[in-house]
Write a structure and sequence with these properties.
207 residues, alpha+beta, six-stranded mixed sheet, 28% helix
């Protein structure tokens, strides 16, 4: 089992889409960075195993988890290993709290998705495929909600889309598109700051 978990992390030039990597502590590829993962217990189903291995290797519990693909090239590992890979999203406001938990592994670091180091096995290929899948799915689904708190402004939502896609979006067109959605509803709450208060929205849970 392996997993690619995405979250938004603060950087000097603004939020960046990042993922956690684990430094390997054994051969093969000792000392190299790799995607978090582990072995499947014979008594586990796949979703449970993906959640467990993420918790054990990173101390993270994603807000969205989906099976990505099965990778089984003959030469992907010194011994024949078939890996069921999941991709996951984690709200940025939960990352630090989860990583601060007692017993959280220390050999975990966050990397920009567009500047990954050379990874163990075929994990660069897996990460690239997961990123391609995320950028495609964000255009036709509510997947961005997995990176946001329960309530958010339309500006915050647009910025998530821009960070995931790696390009700017027209604010007016984006607002018109979302305001016509029957999955997004306004709340009675507002975000206050330097500018005028901005209304908070949420996704309909059952949508």
């Amino acid at each position: 089992m392996s997993a690619v978990i995405f979250s938004l992390r603060s950087a000097p030039d603004g939020d960046r889409l990042m993922l956690p990597l684990v430094r390997r502590t054994q051969e093969p590829h000792f000392g190299m960075w790799a995607l978090p993962g582990g072995w499947l217990d014979p008594a586990e189903d796949l979703d449970a195993a993906a959640s467990r291995t993420l918790a054990e290797t990173t101390a993270l519990t994603p807000s969205y988890l989906e099976q990505l693909y099965t990778f089984g090239d003959v030469d992907r590992s010194p011994s024949r290993v078939i890996s069921v890979v999941y991709w996951a999203l984690l709200r940025s406001d939960l990352v630090d709290a989860q990583r601060a938990s007692e017993g959280a592994p220390e050999n975990v670091e966050w990397f920009d998705v567009d500047a990954l180091p050379a990874l163990a096995f075929d994990h660069n290929r897996i990460a690239e495929y997961a990123l391609w899948r995320l950028r495609n799915k964000v255009g036709y689904s509510r997947i961005a909600a997995g990176l946001l708190p329960d309530e958010f402004t339309l500006t915050e939502l647009r910025e998530v889309y821009e960070t995931v896609l790696g390009r700017r979006l027209d604010p007016s067109n984006f607002r018109r598109l979302l305001e016509g959605s029957d999955e997004l509803v306004p709340t009675e709450h507002f975000r206050t700051g330097k500018h005028r208060p901005a209304r908070l929205y949420r996704y309909i849970a059952e949508a």
